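Morning!

This is the sequence you dropped in the shared folder:
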Amino acid sequence: MPDDVDAEKCSPAPSSGGPDDAAPKAVLLEPGQDAQQWPLYRKVYTNAVLLYVTLVNTYASGVYSPGIKAMLIDIPMSTEVAQLGTSLYMFGLAVGSLFWAPLSQSLGRRPVFLASLTGVTLFNLGVCLSSHIHSLMICRTLAGFAASAAFPNVAGSIVDMTTERNRIPYNTMFRYITFTGPTLSAFLGAVAVRDSDWRWNLRSIPIMAFVGLVVYTFTVPETFAPALQQRNERIREAEQRHEDLLHRSEHWLARFLPRHNALHLVAAQVKQSMYVPWILLAEEPLVMIVCFYTSMLYGLLYGSLLFFPEVWHDIRGLTAVQVGYTYVAVLIGFIVSALLVGCIIQNWEYGRAYDRGTNTPELRLRSGEWSILFVPIGLFIFAWTAPFPHVHWSGPSIGAFLFAFGMLAVFNSWLAYLTDTYSNNTAAVVGLNTFCRSAIAGTFPLFTRQMINAMTFQGAMSMFAGISIPLTCIGFLFGIYGHRLRNHSKHAVHK
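The structure's back. Tokens below.
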């Protein structure tokens, strides 16, 4: 399998004929434009900015929930309707991921990021200013749609800057931030609601997004090689014409606009975004399994986090701020998993195999095979300790830690496997996976409360733990037999 950076750099935007019909073409770059040749400090800085953008968008998904009770005082509505704000944001993420990813292949990363951050700033500002439930929900949905550009495009930007050999730490931190955002917002959101009001809680998002927009605009250049080539061609064309005033304007604009393609080419990309991911989903059992598996785990994560206020506040009698502190166990689990499994074990193991020439996509799954055991173990510990006030708080905290540790380790390995296997369609598979798991996660707030009322907290949480057991079996079986599916795949990149 060729390096997925090179595969994405050397392929123009796919035509509307199918996911694999784009013919490679040479990419001509000027000195300093090739992101893979950047010095380490520049890559680290660019990745830090992209991680901040990711944090803003994931933080926005969870910061809404801590203010629901205070929101009900100002805006007349039921609790069930108020909880739609979280679900609609996730549904916006799901739909938008299929729209933004292919556009970055045509227009480049930079204009997509700029449009996304502008939308995130404005729509979240609309959420803060809303005085009616309808406008609030519309703005939350559109904010999720705008935010969805971050996930496939940050992944694509990492591909632009790194090689297969040194990509693991960058991807690990990206996925760590993806999981940290909702958890961190639950803690900080509770503090903000206590010290101010629910509107100030939401005002933090447009402020953070605007800061990200300014920093990205002035410090992060385009990283996608085909877009840079188009910009260079436009500049050369303007120079060759001995440009008049109009051409000089075009020359100036060309330094900021990555591509001069016609409207019909952009329309072709939008059209492609509507069906290429679904072709992969329908024709590739491997894609179907990975998307189903990661989506169910992501849904369990979102559903489990919704249980925290129920058990710590309603059963154990903690204040809203104290409930926020209980998420620290989850954050520590993510941190330890990212450092130990992602940055150390997986990086060391894959690096050795890569240097020997024995690396395969299945090697990415190895670190997640044993880590997945912590998911059901952690959920069962939490379910059978949290609802009993006489059990020390450390019991459910240990369960939350183990669950978070296993969850991030599994996601790191499975998503890395997916992008390695389909490096020729990175944007499509990342966008499809984001769509599936965001759609599934968005449904959990709709029935979590009902589950607790019907089954008690212990029963509902035990059900989540029970669901994770067959998922664990799927993980082990896929680690053993998954290579057979890849070898018979129509669209996978083979070694």
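Headline: The chain has one domain: 4-9+33-222+258-487.

More detail when I'm at my desk.
O.
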